[in-house]
Amino acid sequence: MFSLGQRIRELRLKKGLTQIELSRTICTPSMISQIESDRARPSYTILYAIAEKLDVPLERLLVDVDLNLEYISTYKMARAMVSAGEYASAIPLLQELVDTPRPQIPMLEIQYDLAECYLFTEQLEEAEAAFHAVMEQAMLRKDHPLMLSVLRCLGQLEFKRHRYQLAVYHWQRALETAERLPDADSSLRATLYHNLGSAHAKLGLMHDAIAFYNEATSLYEGLENLQEIGEVYMGLGLTYQRMHELKRAQEYSEKALAIFEGLDNTLMTLRIQVTRAVLFARIGQAEESVKQIQEAVEEFRSLGQREEQGIACVELAKVHLLRGELEHAEEVCQTARNLLPELHLHQGWVNRVFGRIELRRGRFEEGLRRLQKAADVFKRLGEAGEWDDTMYEIVEYHLSVENYRDAYRLLDEMRRYSREVFESRGIVL
C-alpha cells in the first residue's frame, strides 16, 4: 500500500521531473513537497492537474493508495495544528474528518478538538453546539475526564460572552467533577479556582473572588507554576484595588511584578508596572506614577503593542486628571482613543475621563454627554459593574445640582437594567 504522496513522488521521478517543474502553473514547489511528504492534502483541482502533468489518469494516482492512511495523516496533521495553537487552520481538516468518519479515528476526540477550535476562534455559537454534542456522548459513556474538559470550556465560552454567572455554574460543576476523580489534576483544579476568582470579581463579589484566588494560589505554589501564580497575584491586586484596600493591592502587585520580571515576561511585567503606578498615584506618589506609566507606554509602543499602549495611556490620563492636569489628561486620552479598537472596554474609560475633564471645566452638558457615552459602551460590552459605576457618577452630579427628577429617573433605569442583567445570568431577585 502506498500513500498518495508516495505515489505522486514515484510517478514524478519516473517522469524525470523536479518538484519545481511539476508545480509550475499548478501550485508552489513547497506545496508539492508537502503533498509528497503527506503533510498536505491536495484539492481535487490540484490533484487533477498533477495527474495531467504526469500523463496518467486520475485513477492511476489513486489505485492501491491506502486512503485510511491519508485519513490518519489528516488526523495527525489536525492534531498537530491544535497543539500548536493554529486553530483556524485546523478547523477545515477537523470538519473533513467529522464529515467522513472512520473506525480508526476516535470521533469524539475530533469533535472535542473542533469545538475547542471554534471557541478559540471566537465562533461561539458553533462552539456551544459542538460542546453540547460532545457532552451528551460523554455523559452516555460516563467519561468523567471528558465531561470535566467540556465543562471547563463551556465556562470559558460563557465568560467570553460576559455571562459570568453561567461561567461560574459551569466551572463549579467542573470543580465538583474534578474533586470526585481519584487522580484529579491539581493544575486543572488550580485553573478552575483561578477562573472562578476572575468570574466572581466580574460579578462584583470581591470577597468570594479573593477566596477563590487564594485557593488557586495554594495549589499553584505546590506545583511551582510561577506564570500562573503571577497571574493570580495580579488578579488579587486588582481585586483589592477595587475594594480600596490599597496596601494589600500594592503588596500583591509587587509580588506579581517580581515573578514576571524573573520569568522575563515583558508584557506581563509592563502591565503590572502600570497597575502598580496607578496605586502609587492613589497613595500620593503621582509624580513617580506618571514617570512609570510613561515608560510603560513607550515600551509598549516599541513592542508594537498598540492595544496595550492605548490601555496604559488611559491609566496615564486618569493620573493626570487626579493631579488636575486637564490638558495633559485630554491629550493622552485622545492618543488612547486613536490606539484602541472602536469597541473596547477602555474606549468607555476614554469617554469617562473626557466627561470628568469637561465637568471640571464647567462644561456640564458636554461632560454628561461623554459620561453617558461611556456608560453606553460599557452596557454594549456587558460590563454591568462599569456601567453601574458610570451611571452612579451621572446621578451624583444631578443630585449635586438638586436635579432630583433626572437623578431618580436614572436610578430607576439602573434598577431595571440590573434586574435584567441578573435574570439573564440566572439570578432571580
From TrEMBL:
<dbReference type="GO" id="GO:0003677">
    <property type="term" value="F:DNA binding"/>
</dbReference>
<dbReference type="InterPro" id="IPR011990">
    <property type="entry name" value="TPR-like_helical_dom_sf"/>
</dbReference>
<keyword id="KW-0802">TPR repeat</keyword>
<feature type="domain" description="HTH cro/C1-type">
    <location>
        <begin position="8"/>
        <end position="61"/>
    </location>
</feature>
<dbReference type="InterPro" id="IPR001387">
    <property type="entry name" value="Cro/C1-type_HTH"/>
</dbReference>
<keyword id="KW-0963">Cytoplasm</keyword>
<keyword id="KW-0677">Repeat</keyword>
<dbReference type="Pfam" id="PF14559">
    <property type="entry name" value="TPR_19"/>
</dbReference>
<protein>
    <recommendedName>
        <fullName>HTH cro/C1-type domain-containing protein</fullName>
    </recommendedName>
</protein>
<dbReference type="Pfam" id="PF01381">
    <property type="entry name" value="HTH_3"/>
</dbReference>
<comment type="similarity">
    <text>Belongs to the Rap family.</text>
</comment>
<feature type="repeat" description="TPR">
    <location>
        <begin position="190"/>
        <end position="223"/>
    </location>
</feature>
<dbReference type="Pfam" id="PF13424">
    <property type="entry name" value="TPR_12"/>
</dbReference>
<dbReference type="InterPro" id="IPR010982">
    <property type="entry name" value="Lambda_DNA-bd_dom_sf"/>
</dbReference>
<dbReference type="GO" id="GO:0005737">
    <property type="term" value="C:cytoplasm"/>
</dbReference>
<feature type="repeat" description="TPR">
    <location>
        <begin position="230"/>
        <end position="263"/>
    </location>
</feature>
<dbReference type="InterPro" id="IPR051476">
    <property type="entry name" value="Bac_ResReg_Asp_Phosphatase"/>
</dbReference>
<dbReference type="InterPro" id="IPR019734">
    <property type="entry name" value="TPR_rpt"/>
</dbReference>
